[in-house]
Amino acid sequence: MLKVDHDGEAFDVVSGASFAEEQLTAENVSLRLLLTQARLSAETLLEQAGIDAKAREAADRLQKLILEELHHRIKNTLATVGAIASQSLRNASSLPLAQEAIEGRLLALGRAHDLLLQARWTSADMRKIVQGAIEPFDNPDLAKFSIEGPTVQIASGAVIAIAMTLNELCTNTTKFGALSIPGGRVAISWVVDEARRVKFTWQEHGGPTVHAPTRQSFGTRLIETLGKQLRGNVKLVYEPSGFVYALDVPLAALEFSTVG
């Protein structure tokens, strides 16, 4: 039951509460709810801002790492190209031969980078590296190469070294070795022994009689240098029945190589 007091303000006879008090109470409740909601919203926004800041920081670090890695690889690639050009020119008997040598080596370098791109610059399987290197020199109708070996994942740095080595071997055998005649063949194989060392062998047969070179060419020096960069031992054997290249290298040097 409502009555009006002497001041003209309505109040409830039963509860004794005025409308003003009830409105004030209701407004206080609403205000507390709004403040609680505002506090929760503020906490959510701050949390999201913190996540965004961390994400941006992580993205910045990743971008910096990628740029540093790209810079490192570009410098190494340019150094490799420079060495290929200068040494090929220095050792070639004519400019056309120098041009041919440079083009072949740069194409091999490009194929190695293509392989790494497909593998996202992490690693590549030994068989794919071998197949990619020999493809320009093989005959799809009558295979000139045989390949045999277990799965071995090769780190990005080692891929370049192995691909360049195989290109040199392919170029030499096509010009002077087994593949310089129709009946010549090349057997490529590798094994991993109990000491976790990779024994990689390139064996030519069916070609012309082999004679040891009278001087060391740039290609030979390149093959030996690349093997040493992988912490491996390189052996070149000029058997009359066919040239043999053997690489004995720790598996860890191939899996975690920083060459390239």
Q: Can you describe what's shown?
A:
The longest helix is centred in the first third of the chain and has 73 residues, at 19-91. It contains 6 helices and 9 strands, in the order ββααβαββαββαββα. It has 260 residues and is α+β, with helices and mostly antiparallel strands. The chain has a 5-stranded mixed beta sheet with strand order 4-6-7-9-8. It has a two-stranded antiparallel ribbon with strand order 1-2. It starts with a strand and ends in a 5-residue tail after the last helix. The protein has 2 domains: 1-69; 92-255, Histidine kinase-like ATPase, C-terminal domain (Heat Shock Protein 90, 2-Layer Sandwich), CATH 3.30.565.10.
